[in-house]
UniProtKB/TrEMBL annotation:
Name of protein: Alpha/beta hydrolase
Organism in which the protein naturally occurs: Plantactinospora mayteni
Keyword Metal-binding: no
Stored PANTHER family: ALPHA_BETA-HYDROLASES SUPERFAMILY PROTEIN, RE40534P-RELATED
Domain AB hydrolase-1: 36-249
Annotated InterPro entries: AB_hydrolase_1, AB_hydrolase_fold
Record key words, sorted: Hydrolase
Lineage: superkingdom: Bacteria
MF term (GO), any: hydrolase activity
Lineage, top ranks: Bacteria, Bacillati, Actinomycetota, Actinomycetes, Micromonosporales
Keyword Hydrolase: yes
SUPFAM superfamilies: alpha/beta-Hydrolases (SSF53474)
Amino acid sequence: MKTRVVRVRDWTRPVPAVFREVRAATPEAPEGKPPLLFVPGFGHGAWAFAEHWLEHAASRAFPAHAVSLRGHGGSGPAPKATLRAYAHDVVQVATGLDRRAVLVGHGAGALVVAHALARYPARAGVLVAPVFGGWGTLGTALGRNPAGTLPAVFGGRLRLHHRQLFSRELPDAAAREYAARLGRASARAQWQLLRQRPVEPAVGDPPMLVVGSPDDRVVPPSALTRAAGRYGVAPLLFPGMGHDMMLDARWREPVDAILDWLDKDLAG
C-alpha cells in the first residue's frame, strides 16, 4: 500500500497547484518490476531522460517516467518555487503511479529526491551526480565558471558551459545543443540550495545507490563521497563521464548499472 508522510505545514501552508509534465515509456512485456520516476536537476526538464534513459529502462521491463519540476520543461511556471515545492511535485507524481516507485534524481534533482524520500516510502532511491549544495558547491562552481555562476548568487540564471556538463567524447555540436535547452530554477530554490537545509531521514529506510564520475566538472569527488556517506554507501563511479550522465556519449553504462542494481537488490 502506498502512503505518504504529511507534515502540519503541508496543511497550513499548502504548495500551490501547477501543471506537471510527465513523460513515460512502457515495457512491451511487463514483468512486474517497480516503476522508475526520474527527477532532473535545475535547468533540466523531463526531456533529459526521455532522450535515452526512459526507453532503455522500458526495454528492460521497467515502467519509466520522468517529471519536469515546476518551472522546468513543459510544467507550469513557478518563478517563486522552493525546494519544498519541487519535492511536492515528485511526491505527487510518485503517489499517482500504480505501485511504489524507485526515485532517481540527477544533480540538484538528487537533493529534491532526498527531500521527497522523507515523505514518500519509495522502493529505492538513486542519486546520480548529486548536488547537495552548500557554500563549497558555490566555491567549486565559481572557480570553474565564474561568469556563469556569479549571476545565480544574486537571483539570476545559472549558466553552465557545455564542457562542464559533458565529456569530450560527446560531439561538440550535440553538447552545445543540449546546453542550449537548459532553463533555470527559481532564484529562491537556488538560494536554498546554497544554504543546504538539512535533509530529514528517508521513510522506511529504502536501499540507496549513488552514481557519479570522478571527472564530473560540477560535482567534485569529495562532494560525491559525502553525498554517498549520508546513506552509508560508496559511490559507483564511471571515470571519463561528465555531469549529465544521461545525455553523455556513454549514457548506457550508468543506466545499465542502475537497472542491474535494482534487479539484484529488489529481488532479494
